[in-house]
Amino acid sequence: MTIRISNQRIAWYIILISLILLANYSLYHTDTVKPLPNGVIIGSFLDFMIVIPLTTYFLIIRKRFSIKYLSLIIAACYGLAWFIIPSDFISAFQYSKYVLIGVEAVFLATELFVIMLLIRNVPRMIRHYKESKLPFFTSRMEEAFTSKQNASRTTKILISELSLLYYSLFSWNRKRNIEVSNAFTYHKKTSNIALNIMLLHAIIIETLGLHFLLHEWNPLVSYILLIFNVYAVLLILAEIQAIRLNPIIIQNQELHIQLGLSKRLVVPIDQIESIGSCNQNSIDKKEIFDGILNDFVKEPPNIVIMLKEPIAASYFYGVTRKVRSIHLRLDAPDTFRKKLESEQY
Asked: Is the pLDDT of residue 272 over 70?
């Protein structure tokens, strides 16, 4: 399902939440209302534990994301309450933490139940993965996970994380086993991998320097930053490997595109309306699949594919978006165009 939240809805959400937070902060940290009524803490807790989560649900989560994300919102609101409301007031409401623990326990139990279902189905998923004819690891994993059920957002996030671990740690001895006539690279004439290596080098140096510097000030902050930087290193390594190992594939009357780790698209050949080298059609940028790698200088596409109808493209963490035009920059665009046109007839 395509996730779209209108700018107007986002603006209203930011305004409403900002007003609630500002009102509560002013209440406790200014002398405007002094002394505070005895029941003011109840109103503040209602704002943080009920009003803000419900506002988030109806304006952001509802019909777009899983209701399980409401658990994270409630936990974040509880943290905000402890940050904004002075400890003297909160001490009278120590029981509130038990309510939070109860709510979180319910959501945690649900997640554990889903994980146990996945574990029970591991043999079946491994069998489907091995039998899959799809060319990319991520696509085969998604097919294995969803062979008997629709993919939930949690499942898609899990697939993204498994892909990250596979490409960053376990794919270095793998070679492409795709027929050369059906595979088309898109990175050999770019500086994308060199750019990623430079970024990787900068993150490693920054990690070594900042970790020891921050450790003297606050060990917890230094370890949190270290975890984020290690994740960033794995993400960049996975991106490099996914680009190297996953060329664009034409097989079984389908065009398979995986741009690194972050973008995927499968296009039935019979859904292609035209193949060109420049975009001569006026089309919304939101409906363009940008299949051009980042480089020191952004290059224009040398292949533009127009579709008869919008097709859902998959992005990292399971985000999807409908696209009608595909922009690519291939190492051998003429050969690719001839091969694709031959598949159309």
From this structure: yes
Does residue 266 contact residue 301 with C-beta atoms inside 8 Å? no
Return d(Cα 336, Cα 183) in angstroms, integer.
Answer: 9
Helix, strand or coil, per DSSP, at residue 135: coil
Residue 180 is which amino acid? Answer: V
Domain ranges, residue 286: 248-344
User: Quick one: what percent of the chain has pLDDT higher than 90?
Assistant: 21
Whether the pLDDT of residue 277 is over 90: the answer is no
Q: Is residue 96 part of a domain?
A: yes
pLDDT per position as a tens digit, 287-310 = 899 999 988 888 889 899 999 999
Q: Which of 38-47, 50-59, 97-106, 219-228 is the most confident on average? A: 50-59
Q: Residue type for 192, please?
A: N
Tokens of 28: 């406790």
Give CA–CA dist 116/133, Å, rounded: 27
Token pair for 137: 């690891």
CA dihedral of 329, 335, 341, 345, whole degrees rounded to 10? -150
Residue 240 lies in a domain: no
For the chain, the C-alpha Rg in angstroms (whole number) is 25
Give the burial class of 112: count Cβ atoms within 10 A of its Cβ; 0-12 exposed, 13-18 middle, 19 or more buried. Answer: exposed
Please check whether residue 168 lies inside any domain of the structure.
no
What is the predicted pLDDT for the residue at 67?
63
309: three-class secondary structure by DSSP: strand
Last residue of a domain, one of 92, 117, 142: 117
Measure the CA–CA gap between 242 and 303, rounded to whole angstroms.
21
Is 243 contained in some domain?
no
Q: Which residue type, as a one-letter code, is found at position 25?
A: Y
Residue type at position 316? F
- pLDDT at residue 120 greater than cutoff 80: no
| Count of the separate structural domains present in the chain | 2
